[in-house]
Amino acid sequence: MRILVVEDEPHLLRSLAKALREEGYAVDTAAAGDDGLFKAESYDYDAIVLDVMLPGMDGWQLLERLRRRKPTPVLMLTARDAPRDRVRGLDTGADDYLVKPFDLSELLARIRALIRRGAGKPWPRIEIRDIVIDVKSRTVTRAGQPVWLTAREYAILEYLAYHRGEVVTRTALYEHLMDESDDTLSNLVDVHVFGIRKKLGADLIATRRGHGYCIEI
Ligand code: CA
After folding, report:
1. Cβ atoms 74, 47 nearer than 8 A
2. Domains of the chain
3. Is the link from the previous residue into 122 a cis peptide, with omega within 30 of 0?
4. Looking at residues 131-145, what average pLDDT do you find?
5. 108: CA distance to ligand 1 center in Å?
6. pTM score of the predicted model
7. Spacing, Cα 52 to ligand 1 middle (Å)
8. Bigger pLDDT: 181 or 128?
9. Model pLDDT for residues 183-193, shown as the tens digit of each residue
């Protein structure tokens, strides 16, 4: 899953990006509203963390312009817990908001919930035959036995599971699982899919030649 963080306080931006990467997300960052809007319109992020108070275009304006074109889930970071701010955020199309200063574990939980809702999967467990994916702990079991996946393998499996029944192209996987700081050569999707099949069964992920991958329903 790929997340955009728009925040002008350098220390907070860095620590948010670090914490999200440690959770296995691909993370892009923007320190100003116009750069944030450009990235939000250029890529299909799975969620956006958006600070309200930004230099130049603020978070409200960014959200308003983004909503004309895209439904990307947005979590707003507001500085004050004024009811007017909350109402404005929800009216403008924010999916959730958090008041600063916030607890990091709460931010991560809200992002997981946003991504689940965005994918139409409100529950934190995905079951595919005897395979259970727990998106909260990022663990996988097969027939009740834990299966160890690399961070990349897990990210690909989770993305395909969220889009079960759809063919997911390699391009979509690259876009959702790698961020602007990634070295693409070390991230060959096919190699990771091979790894997942070895651990969870060759027939879990079907290859659609010329199109991509699919976990069938
Ligand atoms: Ca700010």
Report:
1. yes
2. 2-118 (3.40.50.2300), 125-214 (1.10.10.10)
3. no
4. 94
5. 19
6. 0.84
7. 6
8. 128
9. 664 568 889 99
